[in-house]
Amino acid sequence: APAAPFAHAMPVPRVLRPVRRTHTADHYRMHMREADVEIVKGLTSRVRTYEGTFPGPTIRARSGREVVIRQTNDLDVPTAVHLHGGHVLSEHDGLPMDTIAPGDSRLYRYPNTQRASSLWYHDHAHHLEAENVFKGLHGQYLLTDREERRLPLPRGRYDVPLVIRDARVESDGTLKYTRPSDCPNMLVNGKERPYFQVAARKYRLRLYNACANRYFRLRLADGSEFTQIGSDGGLLAEPVRQTELTMLGGERIDVVVDFSRYPVGSSVVLENTGALPTERPEVLRFDVVREARDRSRVPDRLSELPPMPNGTVEREFVLQTFPEMTINGVTYDPNRADVVTTVGSSEVWTIRNIESAVAPPDFHVWHSFHTHLVMFRVLERNGGPVGPTDVGLKDTVTLGPGEEVKIAMTWGEYAGEYLFHCHQLGHSSGGQMGRIDVRAR
Ligand code: C2O
Predict the structure, then answer these.
(1) Is the C-beta atom of 252 inside 6 A of ligand 1?
(2) Which domain CATH number covers 279?
(3) Which 3 state secondary structure label does DSSP give 81?
(4) 62 with 109: CB under 8 angstroms?
(5) How far apart are CA 185 and CA 279, in angstroms?
(6) pLDDT by residue (tens digit) across 74-114?
(7) Do the Cβ atoms of 202 and 158 come closer than 8 Å?
(8) Phi, psi of 339 (to 5 degrees)
(9) What is the 198 CA–ligand 1 centroid distance (Å)?
(10) How far apart are CA 402 and CA 365, in angstroms?
(11) Phi and psi dihedrals of 157, rounded to 5?
């Protein structure tokens, strides 16, 4: 449904309260169920939710404290809950065949033995993940640690997740899962092109691309700079000035925007210059409505990254969409291990987006390559230096048409079955996914 932009105030997803806290863990309960929500002003859309909210509620976790979530599936489709970016045991990873049947529930344990990072949880049921995520099964998981809390970064109400995704809302309100080129609605935190009232000070904005099948190129409409402080795997070593960010499905970018440069009463729009010609570029309008004190700042040193993995094992992966969604010529088979590795193995993976000869001549597609369990580093892009948003610890890396990237990672610390796949979820649902078996040393 075409709708006037900026008709909604942008909600900040609520933080879920634990049902119980122990010395070592926070216990939560979530129900996956349908709910009626207003995405486009004046229309009611039936969506699939975690706990009735679209997107799901935010979990705030602390490094060193376990999070245990009892997930109950009150939907009529199977689901699997995956913590994207999480270091978790295989049986808690939400593998595609390890689903929760309608009416059942299960416990997921997240040890939080990793550094502060903006993670997210989303559905991963085999062949269903794209549609389930599109219909609303995704939510934020913000993990903090002592190193991060010591920094003078904006916090509390000035630290806000912006979950950005496309949608197609029909004129009767139906949220319809379809091709990205037929998804003219752009949502931030579940509302069509909202406005967000901010104070004239610095904000930490945690950008998520939660699209099933779409990339963004985001900038402030006045072209002004902002500061990138983090990526998928948490804080960068040092801040990077950016004016435009390319993000594919699954990626997170953590930025600080200083709204004190704008007079109270003015606005600035976040726009997507990667929008289709048939779409509006506006994503979100920031309205600067008041002055506020600001003691926050972005220090020159943000964090210590773990040492660069020193890879000895090399592997190569080619992603293709024709004639089928494949990696190295095969579609996902849960009974076949595509990579067998060992805890502690340091590896260099070369990943290529090279379409097959049977693809139509003008066919161009983006991929976003994601691995479970580990964070990796991007070593090279197209044989040269890495791109502006390849910095820091990553779990998802973008591949434009014809591009090649080299990434390095060290497997561990858990042995078990994991996955790698394209995070354009239409691709992974179609089979562009492989199984990794990590063996104990
Ligand atoms: Cu965000 Cu295997 O997924």
Answers:
(1) no
(2) 2.60.40.420
(3) strand
(4) no
(5) 8
(6) 999 999 999 999 999 999 999 999 999 999 999 999 999 99
(7) yes
(8) -135, 130
(9) 32
(10) 9
(11) -70, -5
